[in-house]
TrEMBL record:
PANTHER family: ALKALINE PHOSPHATASE SYNTHESIS TRANSCRIPTIONAL REGULATORY PROTEIN PHOP (PTHR48111:SF73), REGULATOR OF RPOS (PTHR48111). Residues 126-227 bind DNA. This is Response regulator transcription factor. InterPro entries: CheY-like_superfamily, OmpR/PhoB-type_DNA-bd, Sig_transdc_resp-reg_C-effctor, Sig_transdc_resp-reg_receiver, WalR-like, WH-like_DNA-bd_sf. One of its GO terms (molecular function) is transcription cis-regulatory region binding. The lineage of its organism: Bacteria, Bacillati, Bacillota, Bacilli, Bacillales. Residues 126-227 form the OmpR/PhoB-type domain. Residues 3-116 form the Response regulatory domain. Keywords: DNA-binding, Phosphoprotein, Transcription, Transcription regulation, Two-component regulatory system. GO terms for cellular component: cytosol; protein-DNA complex. It comes from the Bacteria. The modification 4-aspartylphosphate is found at D52. SMART domains: REC, Trans_reg_C. The keyword Hydrolase does not apply.
Amino acid sequence: MKTILIVDDEAKLLEVVSSYLRNEGYQTIEASTGQEAIKQIKKSPIDFVILDLMLPDIKGEEVCQLIRQEVSIPILMLTAKVKEEERINGLVLGADDYMTKPFSPRELVMRVKTILRRSNDNDLLAERISYNDGELTIDANSKEVFLKGTEVNLTPNEYKTLLVFARHPKRTFSRNELVEKVLGFDYEGDTRAIDQHIKNLRHKIESNPKNPHYIQTVFGVGYKFKGTSYED
């Protein structure tokens, strides 16, 4: 049973969202402040976080960053903000998706199911694969990524993006293909969200993100992955 942490200071919203999720077989934990959310993350095994950006004590963006420092689990942001820059900022901080208030609880449940299904898709062709004499290593068993021996903290979508490239080295993917493979065929948001995930990933695994070695842009087409690999 997956455990979902719902973080929002609206009691009615917590009640409704929790009810819908429990009816679908999920276990829920509720928090009305950012501080409560961080305490729950540290003391309980959490599989998914639904996080409101407008909290009474700490900004949701800061809570997202603090969660990312503790665990790599999917985060769905709830926001009343509608500006594109603000939505993109959520993706920059490591959120996997966002929903704008007011929203349909049924749609939220479907988003949760879709994101969890994507984050569980781990089909690397080898248990462990390394690139460029061990500079970059993906461990499929532990779902960990290492750069020069140091673990890299990737979000689920960043990890899934890297796996897609690792399974198909040197293949050029269009943006729409990556959206389908990483975000799901039923994803209805802006396809340019994949650009932000790739930008984040480059900053974490590339020595020079502005001149990337691994994830290369194929202008007018999309992206491809390049690296000399060996498998364990």
